[in-house]
Design brief:
globular; mainly beta; 174 residues
Length: 174
């Protein structure tokens, strides 16, 4: 659970007890907004916490990732080429190396499990505030919700999954 005043909490017993990570996530601005938390569908204990603090003038991108139920965290966007604060994240439900990030200035993609990111540069998708991401799994389509523009659909991302399965390389070296 995330809140608009910087609380990130986890229950593992159906809500009987909660662990608050507010002061346990290194680099997370105190009191920052937590607009989204996504649990990995691939690994137990893995989650992505989207945080931003633009309302107080901090426009840096923050998405914190844990792989051990919150014992350790890292800001997966630190020192990456992401423009603007983060708004959403989506780890592909089929290929875990494929990660999409929506920011104030567009859509970014990682083909190597967050080691690097690149901006989605395509004439069809503008540098616009990207609020949410979802996949239409049957058709393998990425659905992108933007602020004030529209809903945008990238048809059939199976080729992106193939690249991500090879850590972003187009071809396997023999």
């Amino acid at each position: 659970v995330g809140t608009d005043d910087g609380n990130v909490q986890l229950t593992r017993d159906g809500g009987k007890t909660w662990t608050n990570f507010r002061s346990k996530i290194p680099g997370m601005p105190v009191g920052a907004w937590v607009p989204q938390i996504k649990a990995s569908r691939h690994n137990a204990g893995e989650a992505f916490v989207v945080t931003n603090d633009y309302r107080r003038g901090d426009f840096k991108p923050y998405i914190f990732r844990t792989t051990d139920y919150g014992k350790t965290w890292n800001n997966m966007l630190a020192n990456k080429n992401i423009d603007g604060y983060a708004l959403c994240v989506l780890q592909d439900p089929v290929e875990p190396n494929l990660i999409f990030v929506g920011s104030e200035h567009g859509l970014c993609v990682s083909f190597d499990n967050d080691n690097s990111f690149q901006h989605w540069k395509n004439d069809d998708f503008p540098a616009v505030s990207t609020f949410d991401l979802a996949e239409q799994e049957r058709e393998s389509d990425l659905v992108v919700a933007t602020f004030g523009r529209a809903v945008w659909v990238l048809d059939d991302i199976r080729s992106l999954r193939k690249m991500a399965a090879n850590n972003g390389k187009l071809f396997n070296k023999r």
